[in-house]
């Protein structure tokens, strides 16, 4: 291959935009964008215990704003992971629970949480070592 080589060597499937039939990444990014979002993971963790009202979720998830929680549960509801139930009371009572699809994520999220706890110290040490040897690289 010469330095001026410009021929495209990707397979036809790789040239198709994500979302096209047959693309190897079709659908994965879209799903990971949702379930990989930190607020979505924390909502799923909290709802894995059982149904929660909005304020219960907000109190349980440190640092989440009302607006962000609203957006997160709406997105999870739209994706079929969370069920929102409104009860005809005065004032109206609303609770959120995982759907069967959402509940299917709980073992994966728990495994990720367990891994994070087990490796937290090693990651902190690696970061400290990296920052010490790369003082000009601020990537936080």
Polypeptide structure, described:
The chain is mainly alpha-helical. Helices cover 54% and strands 10% of the residues. It is built from seven helices and three strands. The chain has helices spanning 12-15, 28-35, 38-48, 54-60, 66-78, 100-103, 106-133; strands spanning 52-53, 82-87, 93-98. It has a three-stranded antiparallel β-sheet with strand order 1-3-2. Strand 2 (82-87) and strand 3 form a beta hairpin. It is globular, with a radius of gyration of 21 Å. The chain starts with 11 loop residues before the first helix and ends in a 7-residue tail after the last helix. The model has no long low-confidence stretch (mean pLDDT 84).
Give a short overview.
The protein is mostly helical. It is built from seven helices and three strands, in the order αααβααββαα.
Name the beta content range.
Answer: 5-15%
Helix content: 40-55%
Largest sheet: 3 strands, antiparallel
The chain-level mean pLDDT equals: 84
Low-confidence stretches: none
Number of strands: 3
List the helices and strands and how they pair.
Layout lengths: L11 H4 L12 H8 L2 H11 L3 E2 H7 L5 H13 L3 E6 L5 E6 L1 H4 L2 H28 L7
Keywords:
140 residues; mainly alpha; 7 helices
């Amino acid at each position: 291959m010469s330095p001026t080589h410009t021929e495209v060597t990707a397979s036809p499937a790789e040239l198709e935009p994500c979302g096209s039939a047959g693309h190897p990444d079709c659908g994965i990014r879209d799903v990971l964008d949702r379930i990989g979002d930190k607020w979505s993971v924390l909502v799923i963790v909290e709802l894995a215990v059982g149904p929660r009202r909005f304020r219960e979720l907000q109190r349980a998830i440190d640092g989440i704003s009302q607006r962000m929680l609203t957006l997160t549960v709406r997105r999870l509801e739209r994706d079929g992971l969370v069920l929102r139930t409104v009860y005809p009371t005065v004032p109206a009572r609303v609770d959120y629970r995982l759907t069967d699809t959402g509940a299917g994520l709980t073992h994966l999220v728990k495994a990720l949480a367990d891994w994070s706890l087990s490796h937290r110290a090693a990651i902190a040490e690696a970061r400290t070592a990296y920052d010490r040897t790369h003082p000009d690289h601020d990537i936080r």
